[in-house]
Amino acid sequence: MTAVLVIIHVLICIGLVISILLQSGKGSDLGAAFGGSSQTLFGSTGAATFLNKLTAFVAIGFMVTSLSLAILSSRAPRSSIMEGKAKTQQNEPIKTGGQANTGPVDGPSSETKTGN
To answer: What is the mean pLDDT of residues 109-116?
Structure first.
C-alpha cells in the first residue's frame, strides 16, 4: 500500500511541477509560444482559468498524499539495528595505559642561563 501511495505521490509531484511551469507570467502569452494567441489555445477564456484549476486540483492531491504517507509512516512498527544488542553499563572510568597527570603542567624552567 505504501509503495503504491509513493508512486502516486511522485506522479502528482511531477504533475504539480508541470502545471506550475505551464502557467504564463504577467506579460507573456502561452499561446504565443505555440504560434497562436492564448485565446484560441485553451478556449475563449484562455489558459489562465484552466491551469489555475488544474494546479489547485493537483496541489490538493499532493497535500492528501503527503498527509497519508506521514500517517502511514507513523503507524509503522519501529525497528532498530541495535534492537538485539545487550545494554552495557560503564561503572568505572576507562583506565589508560600510563599514569594520569592530574597536577598542574610544569612550564619552562624559570632558571634560564644567560650568556654571562
So the answer is: 58
Evaluate if residue 1 carries a pLDDT over 70: yes
Nearest-angstrom CA–CA distance, 108 and 97: 26
Beta carbons within 10 angstroms of residue 58's beta carbon: 20
Q: Which string of DSSP letters, residue by residue, matches the chain?
A: -HHHHHHHHHHHHHHHHHHHHHS--SS--HHHHTTS-HHHHS-TT-HHHHHHHHHHHHHHHHHHHHHHHHHHHHHSPP--TTTTSPP----SPPPPSS----SPPP-S-S------
Query: Phi and psi (nearest 5°) for 50?
Result: -65, -45
Task: Judge if pTM exceeds 0.70.
Answer: no
| Higher per-residue confidence, 52 vs 102 | 52
The percentage of residues in the chain with a pLDDT greater than 90, rounded to a whole number, is: 31
**CB contact at 8 A, 51 and 62:** no
